[in-house]
UniProtKB/TrEMBL annotation, chains A, B, C, D:
GO biological process: 'de novo' IMP biosynthetic process; purine nucleobase biosynthetic process
Residues holding [4Fe-4S] cluster: 242, 388, 438, 441
Record-listed E.C. numbers: 2.4.2.14
Taxonomic lineage from the root: Bacteria, Pseudomonadati, Thermodesulfobacteriota, Desulfovibrionia, Desulfovibrionales
Pathway(s) this gene product operates in, as recorded in its UniProt entry: Purine metabolism; IMP biosynthesis via de novo pathway; N(1)-(5-phospho-D-ribosyl)glycinamide from 5-phospho-alpha-D-ribose 1-diphosphate: step 1/2
Gene name as annotated: purF
Protein name (record): Amidophosphoribosyltransferase
């Protein structure tokens, strides 16, 4: 399973800043389910509440109505991939330096953390967590002497390498930054006189906020009182937005990188159909991931669209495990095929990715048991062969099935009659600005060279 | 909103009877989310656990692994419609009478409860709850003197009028009954040497149990040790199965009343398309209720199928309310349209029902705001004009929009360009045995005349 | 350990009836920690909330401020001794009969339950619980035809045998009853224009209510509107109040049966000192049970009083168990001796009872390990040789150490230098009306003969 | 109310290090009820769990049995006095520096924190909390370059001023330190081959550990593998142990500073009686604080000891507040007088301190209402006139009644017939080494001069 990394939300100048942040994070919940946090500026000091769990589990009316006072807020939701799930790693992260309190919410992954950390420690920095964001904020603090906060943030951005969409809150200043490559998305909007920032525009829709624009790669927006200023991190970095946001991460009703996610996914399905449409009775998705590309595939191929795998809407996160002999239970509990639709049929399944292939294999086996005559598989994403160092947790290279196996080996492993992955060219035809995307997970061509010597490097093979 | 009433599950002769009941109820969760309960027979006495909430909230490992010992179990999930949500109303319901403990799990609604209650009280019965099932069990107990349990159950069944699918557990005997009209479904299956009963076959699929058959209307199945016996309640009642199970209630991957629910719903969409397919750009459902009829509609009409309303998968039951000025928030939080798909488009929405029309109206208004050029609405269910007394909570007659308004009035209220409800004839063409269904909510032609004088009667207008 | 059975509280005509009941139950918490419940009459119907746990765990502000509306309330706290701890057994218990709702809160144990239950079942009664109080309320209901509620209660009281202090709430009538022997206490008070009832007067102190009087044995008080009427159950039963309320149960700051509990306990200690004061360095209690008799003992004997066993005030009910090798942990965690006070000392311990002797033995062993030269034990209660059938759970006869062993055997078992139990005569000298007490647990002379054939009888040896 | 500041516990070389720490903290619970935490060294890295609440609320079996692996552990319980109660302030506190993880548990208060913090920030340190312990650990880290951990700790100790008992865990090294004045206690013991440290010896008793000795003021003990080494912080600081540990803080069954707490308190009562024993009917404590000095007072004066104020053992931390008109409720709910003991009596109350006097005043008023003829008050602690900067939270100077009022003014405020505080001389006669104690709260003679300019200084009046 591919894990979402984080979502961020910010708001400036709204009497119910914490409450709107709550709803904003709620709309971004698909980007992280491990922890959530909100920090507000009450005019005197920062106030914070963070906790493990989903947004509605972490916050209650007392937090929103009483404790998180103030007109400015930033929020964060997180899915952690490394180490234990600890409350200490929940964000936004706050530090105190010379009387100034700084809160930071970070979506993305830095690649020169170890190097920077070593350097900072030589100068006396001491760390409390293992998260990237702590390095960021130490860099900011070290650059504060004699400089404004925005200068310090800018200086820190020039030091770090990697992916980041950031929200920084200090006193009555709210700063939003996207890294020079623009790996992670960040959008600016307005609602009722307030400015809002969010990872995806679906957060704006829930608040009935107006979408203004995406931040540019390398752009820093600073809001203070009624003043909104935009700065540019000088750099020659080419734009390298994460195409996986479009394939898989973002909610289909969001605009991301200026692309309409729903339309992109449909186009991927259409391209896929053009590349390889089998002769079958119908097309169906594995709900809900493949729905939109399957719809496009069906339209382009002229094959009937069916929805013959039924999702159990009540599957929650806590669930008592069955005893040993209930084979493949956790796969079965989530979706169940409609038997009468499967028996004797030739079926084409459209899905948005194959990572390890094990879940798909179990599902296909079930279809075979129910009498499916042929099962073909079409994937709206090229083979994932390389790990991502910019914020997506695909599992390590050793576990990526496409990194180690040919298409026909995967066909045999999954037990299907035919398999086709969309080509990189087909994928790029589905988006508006094909030159602006990072394709490293397919090609191994990393926009930022590996920092070397670190843990990540062991995997990239550099 | 239409509320599901209940689901029941039973198992005989399995070492992990409670655990399998847990999974069975889990698969039936869509039929009731208010409370859940399991009762087991440990060879000496009944053991029980009931609680408010979803199945995984009510039970923990200790309940399943330690407390609910025994090879026989019955379980129940409930959505209550009358009175407060009280733990005392959760089922299975247990009574003690002359040293015999009897547990009952009941899906359905009786219509002569008040009359029977009055009669029983004259004879000295005292009640603790306001639920129908308590009347049932008093009747059974009163008939026990000198008779076997199955004779007593049979006698009770001859007294009560209304809808019931029942599971009764006493000592090592498990009894399953369907009322003579067969309003509610009940299926029999087998797994690993055990017999299982469930409201819907999707519970069998999760357990990898084999579906044997549906119980007949008026059939009582008694299991004791290795003996399985079938009895018939003598009655001339015609079969009147609840067609709403097929339209709306049952999970699409279930078999109910011998019908394949998915196929039925697709056929309803196809019939609907034959009756009235508008000239539009595409067809889409309101997820997830209308999906299957929309798929059928799209196939029959040749119109493109889209999935342009996006469901938020993290909407839970507890949620902090927004402040006053976030208009229509609770509608918006559940599904959000894809703007680019709506703007300038002529859209046909297919859904499975209109009860009050207020939610649909809000959604349509949103589509208009986003620039939809035309919005047409097709419903795979005829107009609901009469309340149900057999276990469905449609809201009272005064609230049923079709009971009080013409199609063109509803069109105007909802704000759509055209509205078409499937005809009763079209609906009946979608099912295999059209003569076996109760259509009272459409026609007012109740299979069981109202008992008179009761609370329900005030609504039916008799 | 001796278990407290129950406490009851009632209030009539107070705008915050539920809230005051909450505080009343809170003050009676020592009488039962398993479950708590409050029922109010809101002018139309009964409202109830019951739950497992301590009073502050069961109720929250919403219950007291919103849900439990009404000017009349009864409440109950419970320690169950038989069967599982089930929410269904929590009181007050409510039944519905011919449109009348009746709530009952019962402290005590009936002895002819099985007989009555059989009789009622012959007449068609069906039971849901195994608690005595359900029999009571069936009897009341059966007597309601053509009679007032107070007549029906009176008739029920004439049928049942055993111990009961009752509060009954139906419509706007509150009825309080004490059984003819007066086994359990019940006091009447007033606060701010309202009448209040409570098991012990310490509940009145917390509410700053005025204590009016104890109910007489066999008295029924009925409050309706502004009318307070007293009735007498005609019976020749002699008064037989439970002396264990004075020895152990009641809080020392309560008045019970017209006796001042603190003074009684001090007098028991004084009598005990007169009967047998050893030559030791000091007297000390096992906190907190023996404190008051130890104080009296020290004063009478002239020996120094010490408090050299220290109680851990944070021992709660949930506690992770240590690993195997932490011997006697659960005894040690509660009280810890002051080493310097023990070493080389001759000590007299005064306590209020010995049931099984095992905890005392462990504590004495610890004192020996710490170097105590002599350990003498004085008990302000005669040897408990017979089980109680009227509401105290001493453990069964087989477990009562004094039922099966001589004083010198017990001395040896516990490991003490001398043991003396107060004589029955000494005990009776400590109370004001010695003729009014039940001494059955010491003498086996039961005021109500055993009903025969029941479960209890197996133990009494009749 | 005087607040306890903290308790610490450590263990080296025990297979169940976390579990024993849990029990150790449990025994120290009286020293802090706000948060608890345990950190273990699993051989590779530190593992931690911290939470808000009592020890049994914070930890569950999973924490102790699975997550907190390792043979070495340190634990902390805390009562915070400044700022909000935040999980981020819970200890042990962990930092990472150059690949080394350091955990620290700190009991006490530093006085030059602001100064040190400023200095560290100049050198680039960034802080996450407002607690003293973070300064300590930054100092340690800065001294690590080219030095061993013990050297770095020693260097840090030479920089900080104030009160500290510390446990430090890094890799497989456990370091325990007491500040040069020895303000806070720290004891060393052994159990089953393991070394243990605890604030008080009552923690050893619960574990059946053997008490070895108290650490000396200024001593640092380092344990690594089987090696135990002791170092001395070179300093000329005189020993200044906190006499309030003996008067009030420590559990009476503990040994603290080589003193037996129970015996000390009794001697304080005896000295007090010698100084001023009134002619009354009896002596009683306010439970449970004054019990031990009251016992000594009664023995020395020959007056009868009574226990006539009854403590409610079920008063918990969460409690629904009564409505406005229940005057003095929170005082009344905790202890209730035995009326018959009060009426017409001349009473001498012995207690261990008066801080603001408001609670005592309410209690005395109640005694007067119940008819007490005379109420005399004796306090086993001299008047508290100055705030403490070394870890006790007496409330600010403006709130200390003895700082601003004469004895006769306090008599009048509380409403008593006579008041006597033990003299400083009398107090010192109660302890073994009178020259070794800090008396600053009585005399204003602070062992460490105020650092100046800080927040604390505003209060000391320097």
């Amino acid at each position: 399973m591919i894990r979402h990394y984080c979502g961020i939300f910010g708001i400036y100048n709204h009497a119910e800043a914490a409450r709107l942040s709550y709803f904003g994070l709620y709309a971004l919940q698909h980007r992280g389910q491990e922890s959530a946090g909100i920090v507000t500026w009450d005019g005197q000091k920062l106030r914070e509440h963070r906790g493990m769990g989903l947004v509605p589990e972490v916050f209650n009316e007392r937090h929103l109505g009483k404790e998180l006072k103030g007109d400015i807020a930033i929020g964060h939701i997180r899915y952690s991939t490394t180490g234990a799930s600890l409350i200490r790693n929940a964000q936004p992260f706050i530090v105190r330096y010379k009387g100034l309190e700084i809160a930071i919410a970070h979506n993305g992954n830095l690649v020169n953390t170890l190097e920077l950390r070593r350097e900072l420690e030589e100068q006396g920095s001491i760390f409390q967590t293992s998260i990237d964001s702590e390095v960021f904020v130490h860099l900011i603090a070290r650059n504060l002497n004699g400089h404004t906060l925005e200068e310090a943030v800018m200086a820190a951005c020039r030091k770090v390498k990697g992916a980041y969409a950031l929200l920084i809150l200090a006193n009555n200043k709210l700063i939003a930054v996207r890294d020079p490559h623009g790996f992670r998305p960040l959008a600016l909007g307005r609602v009722a006189g307030a400015h809002v920032f969010a990872s995806e525009t679906c957060a704006f829709d829930l608040l009935e906020a107006e979408f203004i624009r995406s931040l540019d790669p390398g752009e820093m927006v600073v809001i203070e009182d009624t003043k909104v200023q935009s700065y540019k991190i000088e750099t020659e970095a080419p734009t390298r937005q994460c195409i996986f946001e479009l394939i898989y991460f973002a909610r289909p009703d969001s605009l991301v990188f200026g692309e309409d996610v729903y339309q992109c996914r449909k186009r991927m399905g259409q391209e896929l159909a053009r590349e390889s449409a089998p002769d079958v009775d119908f097309v169906m998705p594995f709900p809900d991931s493949g729905v939109y590309s399957a719809v496009g595939f069906a339209q382009e191929s002229g094959l009937p669209y069916e929805h013959a795998m039924i999702r159990n809407h009540y599957v929650g996160r806590t669930f008592i495990q069955p005893s040993q002999d209930m084979r493949d239970f956790s796969v079965r509990v989530k979706i169940n095929p409609v038997k009468s639709m499967i028996k004797g049929k030739r079926i084409c399944i459209v899905d948005d990715s194959i990572v390890r292939g094990t879940t798909i294999r179990t599902r296909v086996k079930k279809l075979r048991e129910l009498g499916a005559r042929e099962v073909h598989f079409r994937v709206s994403c090229p083979p994932i062969k390389f790990p991502c160092f910019y914020g997506i947790d695909f599992a390590s290279k050793g576990e990526l099935i496409a990194a180690n196996h040919s298409v026909s080996e995967i066909e045999r492993f999954i037990g299907i009659d035919s398999l086709h992955y969309i080509t990189i060219e087909g994928l790029l035809r589905s988006v508006s600005h094909p030159e602006n995307y990072c394709l490293a997970c397919f090609t191994g061509d990393y926009p930022i060279p590996c920092a070397g010597g670190g843990k990540l490097c062991l995997e990239c093979g550099c």
